[in-house]
Predict the 3D structure of the following.
Amino acid sequence: MEMRDVQVQGDPLRFRTNLDRIGQIMAYEISKRLDYKDTTISTPLGECVCQEPADKIVLATILRAGLPFHHGFLSYFDRAENAFVSAYRKYKEKGDSFDVLIEYMASPSIEDKTLILVDPMLATGSSMELAYRALLHKGTPAKIHLASVIASKQSVEYVRQNFPEDTVLWCGAIDDEVNAHSYIVPGLGDAGDLAYGIKE
C-alpha cells in the first residue's frame, strides 16, 4: 500500500487522495450491510421501483486526520448527516504518557440512526471511544460502524471490550504493534501531519 511508503508520503495531495479513495471503497462495502426499501420513481418514460437505503446515516469524523477519509465516505453516502469531533493527545510533562481530550463536537441527533465513525488510524482505540461517548450526548444509534485504514491488534481488542457487542469494525489492515508513543508499527506515521503538515 503506497500510503505507507515514505517515498510517496512527501506528497500531501496524493496522501489525502488515497485516504479519500479508501473511504470510498469502505463506504461501498458498508453499503452492503444497510437496510433498503423500495421506492417508486418517475422516469421520462414511465415509473420504476428502485431501492434506496432505509437507514438514516450520520457520518462522524475525528478531526483533523479524518477529513479526507470522511470525504471519501461522503462521496457514497452523499445524503448522510455529518458530525465532527476533535480529539487530541495532551502529553504529560514526563515520559510518553498522555490523555486524550475532546474539545469540540458538532453533531445532529444520532438517535436510532446508523452511526459511521471514521478515523484513519486506530492505535489504542481510546480516541475512538471518547469520540463515541461524546456523540452519545446526541442520542443512541441503532447501528454502529467504525472504520480505519490501519488498526493495531491492541485497538481491535479494545473496541471489542468497550463498544456495544453489535458494533462492526472495518479495517484496511491490522498491524501487530503499538510503540511507546502509541503509534502503530509499522503503520504509516501521523496521518494528520502527512495530510495537512506538521503541527506545532
Q: What stands out?
A: The longest strand covers residues 81-91.
